Amino acid sequence: MRTPISTLALLGTLAVLSTGAQAADSVPHLCGGIGFDGRAAMQRHRHDYNLGIWLTTSGKRPRFLAYLPITISQGGKTVASFTSDGPLCFVKLPDGTYTVTSKRRDETRSITVHTGQMNAYLRFK
Questions:
Q1: Does domain 5-124 have CATH number 2.60.40.10?
Q2: For 45-69, how does the pLDDT look when each residue is reduced to its tens digit (9 = 90+)?
Q3: Taking the model in full, what pTM does it have?
Q4: d(CA 33, CA 89)
Q5: Residue 30: what pLDDT?
Q6: CA–CA distance from 24 to each of 30, 59, 65, 66, 100 (Å)?
Q7: What does each C-alpha distance from 58 to 25, 34, 66 come to in angstroms?
């Protein structure tokens, strides 16, 4: 029996919107955005979150990155830790200022973010 393409597309969208198996210390998050359709699917959920983090390379032609560990901390305490399933992660946190850290190969990057920022970038070489 053949599976209709529309069913396969829906399953692909659901996979892109997966929050992964790792808990984020009960902090709601959603990562995905691989490909044009994946990014469009993510943007439909943007209003449910108050922080957006992009994972990219730096330079003239940046590339999107995925499957990187992300740690979010406040005042030296980790409040969320998960692995990105795509280049864009949305997180819902209590209002405040946080440090977002990720590592790619031997390179660690950290940025300071504030809730309400929906286009924070972690850029790697």
A1: yes
A2: 999 999 999 999 999 999 999 999 9
A3: 0.79
A4: 8
A5: 97
A6: 10, 31, 20, 17, 13
A7: 30, 18, 14
